[in-house]
């Protein structure tokens, strides 16, 4: 079964469905706490979520029992805040004009049932509201002032308040929702854990290609996970999983960070952990962190508007300028003379009060060492793109030219390279990282640490094969097992 519907009175939910069981709030609250297994989904459809009401306690105790309430107490509290509508995501705000501008009235009430709306034109807006406030039944009051639509209020809707014409629609979408949330089974045995893999199907250069994602799915199933591929529209479902694995390029001011942050808040095991995203995404932080841990890097300087004139004397020319939030060679440029240095630095400083400058150290290839849980597990050499100083060459039209690659066993990689990579990754955390390094003779220098390294079939897995995917998934499973053991 996909879960339990909890209502104040059985008559409140007259729809029979094979995938769910119906209980009253009193039955649920007074039941043996160990009577229902952990991770059971609890669909809380009580008439009130007022503080310390039975509806409030259903969600509160479900969380205490290790189950998965919808809505959870955090969502219930968020819906009560006066400034709730002010913290809605940009996605909600951006959908308001297209959804509502054709209306003649300046006020509209939108109903969202399990993230779906009876009016098809508002389907995307209803889904976005559900993602912001994951609750089965929502009502949003929308107003237009000075030609702009705003969300005036959002509140949970009681079953008894449904418009009379919406009951059939609710029954339909609820049945569909229950079917989709039903636990996946491998053979006849339910998997002990649920794993979500976040991807962007439209990303031109994702961190894992389609074949790699299939390998991750297979590794997950073999490790005891029911694996589901999700995208940004599934934000409202994050709490229904045990673990989240992000296979979309991450950034701080981005939905990937919001997914990671919410998953961590809900107690999921997360790769990439939000703290790792924050630390790896900013080159200024990395520069200071590497210096504090005495990890060798190219000669590095934090640049601001008042010390641009000191860069050439300290680093020489050419040198490399890095936007703090750059990743995978983007936002990184080489400057060859003083005029170009000043022009490029001032342009970058319009976005950030600090940028990073480093001495230019040409090599034929960069090392990438994959590190997970403080241990190196793959090593690649990425060669520079033809007639270029980086491993990836981008043209103005969006084209990409990449250099060759060579994957080697960790045992065959230079010890100094592996040692420096592990030290750099451990300075960040115990998650999954890709450490980029340059080697010139016996000198090894860390270039950057990526929280979301490429794991592509045919590249990083050339030596380990399926064991690479099993190693990553195994790390997630180990953390879940440790948490389960600690909770006993």
Helix content: 25-40%
Count of individual helical segments? 14
Global mean pLDDT: 88
Major β-sheet annotation: 5 strands, antiparallel
What is the overall shape? Answer: globular
Derived from helix and strand composition plus strand pairing, the structural class reads alpha/beta
Strand content: 25-35%
Low-confidence stretches at least 5 residues in length (pLDDT < 50)? none
Rg, alpha carbons = 26 Å
Total strands: 24
Summarize the structure in short:
With 488 residues, this protein is α/β, with parallel strands linked by helices. Helix content is 32%, strand content 27%. Helix 4 packs antiparallel against helix 5 and helix 7 crosses helix 14.
Structural summary, described in words:
This protein is of the alpha/beta class and about 500 residues long. The protein has 14 helices and 24 strands. Strand 10 (about 195-200), helix 7 and strand 11 form a beta-alpha-beta unit. Helix 7 packs across helix 14. The two termini are about 25 Å apart.
Please name the defining characteristics of this protein.
single chain; about 500 residues; alpha/beta; 5-stranded antiparallel beta sheet; 14 helices; about 30% helix
């Amino acid at each position: 079964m996909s879960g339990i519907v909890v209502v104040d009175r059985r008559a409140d939910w007259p729809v029979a469905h094979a995938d769910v069981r119906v209980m009253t709030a009193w039955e649920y609250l007074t039941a043996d706490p160990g009577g229902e297994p952990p991770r059971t989904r609890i669909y809380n459809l009580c008439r009130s979520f007022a503080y310390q009401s039975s509806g409030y306690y259903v969600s509160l105790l479900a969380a205490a029992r290790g189950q998965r309430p919808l809505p959870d107490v955090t969502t219930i509290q968020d819906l009560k805040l006066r400034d709730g509508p002010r913290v809605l995501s940009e996605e909600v705000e951006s959908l308001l004009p297209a959804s509502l501008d054709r209306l003649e009235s300046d006020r509209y009430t939108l109903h969202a049932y399990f993230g779906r709306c009876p009016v098809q034109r508002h389907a995307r807006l209803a889904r976005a509201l559900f993602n912001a406030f994951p609750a089965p039944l929502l009502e949003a009051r929308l107003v237009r002032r000075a030609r702009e639509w705003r969300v005036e209020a959002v509140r949970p809707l009681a079953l008894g308040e449904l418009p009379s014409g919406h009951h059939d629609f609710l029954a339909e979408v609820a049945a569909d929702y229950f079917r989709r949330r039903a636990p996946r089974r491998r053979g006849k045995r339910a998997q002990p854990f649920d794993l979500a893999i976040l991807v962007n199907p439209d990303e031109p250069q994702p961190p894992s290609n389609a074949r790699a994602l299939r390998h991750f799915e297979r590794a997950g199933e073999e490790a005891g996970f029911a694996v589901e591929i999700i995208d940004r529209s599934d934000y409202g479902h994050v709490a229904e999983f045990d673990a989240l694995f992000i296979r979309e390029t991450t950034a701080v001011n981005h939905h990937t960070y919001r997914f990671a942050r919410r998953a961590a808040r809900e107690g999921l095991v997360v790769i990439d952990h939000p703290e790792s995203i924050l630390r790896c995404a900013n080159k200024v932080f990395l520069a200071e962190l590497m210096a504090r841990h005495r990890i060798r890097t190219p000669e590095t300087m934090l640049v601001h508007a008042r010390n641009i004139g000191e860069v050439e004397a300290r680093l020489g020319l050419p040198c490399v300028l890095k936007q703090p939030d750059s990743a995978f060679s983007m936002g990184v440029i080489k400057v060859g003379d003083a005029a170009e240095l000043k022009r490029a630095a001032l342009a970058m400083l319009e976005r950030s009060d600090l940028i990073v400058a480093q001495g230019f150290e040409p090599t034929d290839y960069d090392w990438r060492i994959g590190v997970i849980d403080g241990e190196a597990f793959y090593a690649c050499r990425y060669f520079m793109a033809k007639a270029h100083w980086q491993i990836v060459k981008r043209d103005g039209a969006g084209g990409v030219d990449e250099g060759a690659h060579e994957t080697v066993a960790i045992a065959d990689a230079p010890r100094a390279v592996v040692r420096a990579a592990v030290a750099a990754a451990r300075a960040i955390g115990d998650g999954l990282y890709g450490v980029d390094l340059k080697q010139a003779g016996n000198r090894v220098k860390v270039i950057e640490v990526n929280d979301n390294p490429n794991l592509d079939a045919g590249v990083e897995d050339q030596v380990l094969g399926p064991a690479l995917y099993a190693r990553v998934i195994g790390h997630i499973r180990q953390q879940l097992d440790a948490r389960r053991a600690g909770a006993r």
